[in-house]
């Protein structure tokens, strides 16, 4: 596996440490742990997204969806079966999992639904008015000088 030194990024930028930490976490993440359960991430509108996770064999009570600041955590724990079953072949994995998604700033979960073996989580990006681009009016007059009193020591 390749390793990258991100220290120049830390030295040359201010306020991007969260982005560098995210890059570092993604590059060091074990690939084998992120394949179960399978999932899709789709863009449904300009500022709307949907995460769909295959959760065959789980009920609504077995699933949990939680947003913690900029992290979305999806968990599944199968309740103990009351009757013991004997499987001749078991191809539907119902093992417990915890799936984490890093969310960008101002992204929040708007809802979740469970249908046809898929857990759908809808997200929306809501940028505050103060952070949206705005037009600055340009005056045709030159700036005025401010008369200042000389400073005496």
Automatic annotation (TrEMBL):
Domain SHSP residues, every copy: 30-141
InterPro entries xrefs: A-crystallin/Hsp20_dom, ACD_IbpA/B, HSP20-like_chaperone
PROSITE patterns documented for this protein: SHSP
Keyword Translocase: no
Keywords carried by this UniProt record: Stress response
Superkingdom, taxonomy of origin: Bacteria
Family statement: Belongs to the small heat shock protein (HSP20) family.
Protein name: Heat-shock protein
Organism of provenance: Rhodophyticola porphyridii
